[in-house]
Amino acid sequence: MSRYYEDAAELSRLITAWSTKLKTKNRLLVCSGGGPGIMEAANKGAMMAKGESIGLNISLPFEQYPNPYITPKFNMEFHYFFMRKFWFMFLGKALVAFPGGFGTLDEFFELLTLLQTKKVGKKMTVILYGRNFWNKIIDFKALVKYGMISPDDMNLFSFAETPKEAFAILKKDVLKNYSEFR
């Protein structure tokens, strides 16, 4: 699974390097859950590109602590998951979900549900990183087959296998969906 750490850092580096070339007021900042693992990799990649990043940390009785790569002024601590998810979605332009556990699944499915029901008033790109992982843990085809989701719901997200592929999808969609970044 360490491949995903390296890929997350590289994707974040690519996004941050591109974003720093945009108009200052229209920059994009990488935002992670603020903890270790893939979240740390995302913040680390932004730092590698000499950019800033956000960490939306959650206070938990175990495992979660702010990673050292978050820009200090953007290190935020939340007590409630619903508030943390609100800020992820309110400010976010995209979600890249790397392989993860319950928290990743919770945030991914909540965002998909909000997009499916048109409760999000903006375009958001959703990328699942690592098709093999995602297809092993979620049988999307079975959800369509049994009528639990519409075949059109499969268009709510895409898959990426490399940092360059994910970056190309993100850049294309951000430029298409948000005129302030053109």
- From the spread of the alpha carbons, the general shape counts as globular
Order of helices and strands: HEHEEHEHEHHEH
Helix percentage: 40-55%
Oligomerization category of the chains in this entry: single chain
Classification by helices and strands: alpha/beta
Care to count the β-strands?
A: 6
Distance between the termini: 35 Å
- The value of Rg in angstroms is 16 Å
Q: Number of helical runs?
A: 7
Lateral arrangement of strands in the main beta sheet: 1-2-3
Largest sheet: number of strands, sense, barrel closure: 3 strands, parallel
* Overall average residue pLDDT: 94
Write structural notes for this entry.
- The chain is an alpha/beta fold.
- 46% of the residues lie in helices and 14% in strands.
- α4 links the parallel β4 (94-97) and β5 (125-129).
- The longest helix is centred in the first third of the chain and has 18 residues, at 2-19.
- The protein starts with a helix and ends in a 5-residue tail after the last helix.
Observed structural traits:
14% strand, globular, alpha/beta, 46% helix, three-stranded parallel beta sheet, 182 residues
List the helices and strands and how they pair.
Blueprint: H1 2-19, E1 30-32, H2 38-48, E2 53-58, E3 75-78, H3 81-91, E4 94-97, H4 102-116, E5 125-129, H5 131-137, H6 140-145, E6 158-160, H7 163-177
Parallel strand pairs: 1-2, 2-3, 4-5, 5-6
Helix pairs in contact: 1-2, 1-7
Task: Give the gist of this structure.
The chain has 182 residues and is an alpha/beta fold. It has seven helices and six strands. The mean pLDDT is 94.
